[in-house]
Design goal:
There is one protein chain. Strands 1, 2, 3, 4, 7, 8, 9 and 10 form an 8-stranded mixed sheet that branches. The chain has 329 residues and is of the alpha/beta class. Helix 2 links the parallel strand 1 and strand 2. Helices cover 49% and strands 19% of the residues. The chain has one domain: Bacterial extracellular solute-binding protein, family 7 (D-Maltodextrin-Binding Protein, domain 2), CATH 3.40.190.170. The protein contains 13 helices and 10 strands. Helix 2 runs antiparallel to helix 10, helix 5 runs antiparallel to helix 13 and helix 12 packs across helix 13.
Length: 329
């Protein structure tokens, strides 16, 4: 009899463990940057919230530094369900949704307040773009990850006007940014962020485009002399999740994820824009920082005016709607 009871208890424990294992859902996340970067810390903050709020039902496993997928592979990997979630540069979705590159239009957003309003969770522009991404790729946008504003890097004579870019080979990270470089007189070369250091070191390109935080995290100050604070466009990443996977979760866990996404999105944006000046100050001793005068900036604005019109004409109805939504703010 005791033997039967022990056997029954053992069976119950095994069954209970099996049920618990089935209830636990692991979300694997691919990230291009180190876990110590602001985007990595952003995912860790998200992980802490969802694991606590779900009582352990949701687990998150982060794979930083492009361990699993390179930036350009993320939209397909997440959209197909090869991995549950990940972060990618927003422009990587331009192949399916060309309108997302609105964020890269030069001098389109008047100031930080205008940018924040346009990309805010629930804004008309965001709703238009997020809906298009999930429809075309199968990847649900959980939140946008602020990365900062665009700067230019180079060796030798600092870049102050478009004339300083004439005939130069410039690293870009999106087609619209390529249009901007062409409008400024340069020759665009599309290149992923992880390849920057070596490309600059070997002189594969003359000029680089990136964000101030990347200058710090990727130690680009070791291979470039100058950083020009053009701040002509915004750099945004998106945290995405396979839509079918998201829909397979319980309503409770979906709500936990949605709420956590809204929290960490605001946290990161406040941190990035609030800390951008601090990052610039930190690297100033390692690289020459060039701030444009109002007169110099006006020359850049005039030189790139045609890019917005080209974007509206070539990127379709969704792009036009997004432009109008942003302009209306």
């Amino acid at each position: 009899m005791k033997s039967l009871i022990k056997t029954a208890l053992a069976g119950a424990l095994i069954l209970g463990a099996s049920i618990a294992a089935q209830a636990e859902t692991t979300i694997k996340v691919t990230l291009q940057l180190p876990a110590t970067h602001s985007l990595g810390k952003n995912w860790i903050a998200f992980k802490e919230i969802i694991e606590k709020e779900s009582g352990g039902d949701l687990k998150l496993q982060l794979f930083p530094s492009a361990q699993l997928y390179k930036d350009k592979q993320v939209p397909e990997a997440v959209g197909s369900g090869a991995i549950e979630a990940g972060s990618a540069f927003l422009g990587r979705f331009a192949g399916s949704v060309p309108a997302v590159e609105i964020i890269n239009l030069p001098f389109f957003f008047r100031d930080e307040a205008h940018l924040r309003a346009a990309v805010a969770n629930g804004s008309t522009m965001r709703n238009i773009l997020d809906a298009a991404v999930v429809k075309e790729t199968g990847a649900k946008v959980l939140w946008w990850q602020a990365f900062g504003r665009n700067v230019y890097l180079n060796k030798g004579k600092p870049i102050r006007t478009p004339a300083d870019l004439k005939g130069k080979k410039v690293r870009t990270y999106g087609k619209v940014l390529g249009w901007t470089v062409e409008a400024l007189g340069g020759a665009p070369t599309l290149m992923s962020g992880s390849k920057q250091f070596l490309a600059y070191q070997q002189g594969a390109v003359d000029v680089g485009m990136t964000g101030a935080s990347a200058v710090k995290s990727r130690k680009l100050y070791e291979v470039m002399d100058n950083m020009t604070l053009s701040y002509d466009s915004a750099i945004e990443f998106v945290a995405v999740m396979n839509n079918d996977f998201f829909n397979s979760l319980s309503a409770k866990n979906q709500a936990i994820i949605t709420k956590a996404a809204a929290i960490v999105e605001k946290q990161l944006r406040d941190e990035v824009y609030g800390g951008e000046a601090a990052v610039v100050k930190e690297v100033a001793g390692k690289i020459n920082v060039v701030e444009l005068t109002a007169e110099e900036r006006a020359v850049w604005v005039e030189a790139t005016k045609s890019v917005v019109d080209k974007f509206a004409n070539e990127r379709g109805e969704v792009a036009v709607k997004a432009i109008e939504a942003a302009k209306g703010l």
